[in-house]
Amino acid sequence: MVVRxxxxxxxxxxxxxxxxxxxxxVQNLMDKLKAFFVEREDIIEAMFxxxxxxxxxxxxxxxxxxxxGLIYGLTKSVQDFRIFYYLLNKFTxxxxxxxxxxxxxxxHDEFERKIESKLPDxxxxxxxxxxxxxxxxxxxxxxxxxxxxxxxxxxxxKVPLECLFGATNFMPEETNLVAFFDRFLFRFLIEYxxxxxxxxxxxxxxxxxxxxxxxxxxxxxxxEVHLLQTKVSKVKFxxxxxxxxxxxxxxxxxxxxSDRRFAWALSALQASAVIHxxxxxxxxxxxxxxxxxxxxxxxxxxVISTILKTINPAIARVxxxxxxxxxxxxxxxxxxxxxxxxxxxxxxxxxNEIRKTIxxxxxxxxxxxxxxxxxxxxxxxxxxxxxxxxxxxxxDE
Length: 397
Description:
The chain has helices spanning 17-36, 41-53, 67-75, 94-98, 103-106, 135-140, 142-146, 178-182, 196-207, 222-232, 240-252, 259-275, 300-311, 313-332, 341-364, 369-393; strands at 57-60, 78-79, 83-87, 124-128, 149-152, 155-158, 163-168, 186-189, 220-221. It is α/β, with parallel strands linked by helices. The chain folds into two domains: 17-228, P-loop containing nucleotide triphosphate hydrolases (Rossmann fold); 312-393. The strands form three sheets. A five-stranded parallel sheet has the order 3-4-7-1-8, with helices on one face. Strands 2-9 form a two-stranded parallel sheet. The protein has a two-stranded antiparallel ribbon with strand order 5-6.
């Protein structure tokens, strides 16, 4: 996955000063969140994109991967919003999420719920362990998420929902939940922290009982969010041909996201441009499609590689080299350098060849700022791996 940075120079001719100020707040909040929630950069950007394009996101992963923490981090970063949280289980009743039935109405043979402080009254929603809820509750949320309509008895009530976040430990298996799952534009598979230095950061934060906090003056106001939401639709879209090419290439791989998902994705791509202070969608923004265009876990790798190859074949080759490097590291991870010195030396040689290939690709290819940053990180990881091998062998570079 391509690593991206949040800081960007805001185009002054496209954004007026209040919009520039709001974008700077978004970028500062993203950086703050990324420093606290390590290895979650893409998810953090997607949360703000979801808010600006009024779409929904779901985080799928084992317990203890900071799914809930990330969402709480976002809600601590904004103010003036009505927020609804709820942890679902198989015994959760509709009134706990949608509101209790009004007895006074029942006495007149009318069915109506009191929705104040419940999901139909919220502007940002968070449903934890979302697929633990029964299908009757989840399917009742379809119209709230899509049309922003809640059918309260005989009335169709317009709801103020900006975006809904879901967290779950598992993918849905019931076919009757496919429509509900499809309402989440962004789908993230979250793993445990991979890099030792990031794991250390997490442990140190925990040891110090550090919590993610934002000062009131740093928080994004609802007025600022609405200001940027209005700007999203005005962002230019010169990369439409690339989107169509991605669709064509995915179909060749027997992966065919719905027309609706592509249509929803357009505003997300525009919102991505906004949070980075651009007036047009660029190829850098297209990388967010990695977490939009798959519907089955088996498709994730193919979707990522297809998008990479379509946007920039050179960066795809770099990613392949990076993967080869990680496989080499894994092959000697549990070996004894005293007994397997030749294998360590061979691994070093192969990693050095990978470094040369990546550097040559970087020199000959054309890369944007984000792609260049990603390549530099990969080269840094390669250097660290080679240094570690020499250290284990008691040798100097």
